[in-house]
Design a protein that fits this description.
- By secondary structure, this protein is mainly beta.
- It folds into 3 domains: about 80 residues, Immunoglobulin-like, CATH 2.60.40; about 100 residues, Immunoglobulins (Immunoglobulin-like); about 120 residues, Immunoglobulin-like.
- About 5% of the residues lie in helices and about 45% in strands.
- The strands form 7 sheets. Strands 22, 23, 24, 25, 26, 27, 28, 29, 30 and 31 form a 10-stranded mixed β-sheet that branches. Strands 12, 15, 16, 19, 20 and 21 form a 6-stranded mixed β-sheet that branches.
- A hairpin with a 5-residue loop joins strand 15 and strand 16.
- It is rod-shaped, with a radius of gyration of 39 Å.
- The relative contact order is 0.11.
- This is DUF5018 domain-containing protein.
- Keywords: Signal.
């Protein structure tokens, strides 16, 4: 009888052991990233789009792009992820995460950062000029929109007629409620005076003006200064006349005109440039200049005024609608024009 009880107890033990073995769970084979979020500023965050082996972060263009982030990562039950959730990682396309399932299976995910940025909008108006060494400013809500406010991501170029590009330094700042960008124009000698197209690159976007819309010009202090004329002069048609002064450069032709009344200009003729140095410019008197005696720098009949055309690249120059720029010849007396 005792032996029978022992056999029944042993059979029961085997039964319970078998039941326990049947309820044991196999290790989980799941190794998915189920959510991925990056904090932007404050309590806001950007969630990643998880597809196959890629976690895509669509980063708002108006926020500075951080070098590193500490993403919050959740994975399949009983799985682990490396780097762990909350660990600082490079915020760059290609950053790798590895998820290990409970059964030891591995799956790699790679980060892909896409800056969600509209096409850049650049408003240039009707052209303008800037002086060497000065600053230009753009309002990022009106005149230059949809750029990333980071000078590592946003670049500003001047493009000349030969498609040579010169990058200009940019800085971002705020003025009250306005978000602004400042562009530093190079000093004289670093680039040439003249017309330029504008090119802006920012993040994944770029824009370039079709035509020249910006003129880089000399300051008025660099313009030629002509010595005053004094005493009566006699000009013979077809011969030459020389004007002296300082800072003569890029001299061109000259114009002769009168003001018979205070609101009307009458062209008398044009002087052709023959030669020029830094201190003088020589012109040929036209054969068609009417002979006679002219009162210099006065108004009314039989008067004459002289303007020497200089480089276009001074304040007032507009590459969209350029107009000649002149300096006046001062003085007062008479000019007699003869055959």
């Amino acid at each position: 009888m005792q032996r029978k009880h022992i056999l029944l107890a042993f059979a029961a033990l085997l039964f319970f052991a078998a039941c326990k073995k049947e309820t044991e769970h196999a290790p989980y084979p799941y190794h998915r990233i189920t959510s991925f979020a990056v904090q932007t500023n404050g309590a806001d965050s950007v969630s990643g789009a998880i597809t196959a082996d890629t976690v895509i972060i669509y980063w708002p263009y108006h926020l500075p792009l951080p070098e590193q982030v500490r993403p919050k990562v959740t994975v399949s039950e009983n799985a682990t992820v490396s780097p762990a959730s909350g660990t600082a990682v490079d915020f760059a396309t290609g950053t790798k995460y590895t998820v290990e399932a409970q059964d030891g299976g591995l799956k790699d995910y790679f980060l892909k950062v896409i800056v969600q940025q509209p096409a850049i909008q650049l408003y240039t108006g009707f052209g303008q000029s800037v002086v060497f060494g000065s600053d230009m400013t753009y309002d990022n809500s009106t005149t230059l929109r949809y750029v990333i406010r980071d000078n590592q991501q946003t670049h500003y170029f001047l493009v000349d007629a030969e498609n040579n590009e010169a990058e200009l330094p940019v800085t971002f700042y705020t003025a009250g409620r306005d978000s602004m960008m400042r562009v530093k124009v190079p000093e004289k000698g670093q680039i040439a005076a003249g017309p330029y197209r504008i090119k802006v690159t920012s993040g994944t976007q770029s824009v370039i003006t079709e035509n020249a819309v910006l003129g880089v010009v000399n300051g008025w202090e660099d313009r030629p200064v002509v010595n005053e004329l004094s005493g009566s002069m006699t000009w013979k048609r077809g011969e030459t006349i020389t004007f002296e002064g300082t800072q003569f450069a890029d001299m061109q032709g000259a114009r002769l005109y009168s003001l018979p009344d205070w609101w009307t200009e009458t062209e008398l003729g044009a002087l052709e440039l023959v030669s020029a140095t830094a201190t003088s410019a020589t012109y040929r008197i036209p054969d068609t200049l009417p002979t006679g005696t002219y009162t210099f720098n006065d108004d009314g009949p039989n008067t004459m005024r002289i303007q020497l055309r200089i480089s276009d690249y001074f304040p007032g120059y507009n590459p969209v609608s350029p107009k000649p720029i002149y300096v006046d010849v001062k003085g007062s007396d008479t000019i007699v024009v003869t055959e």
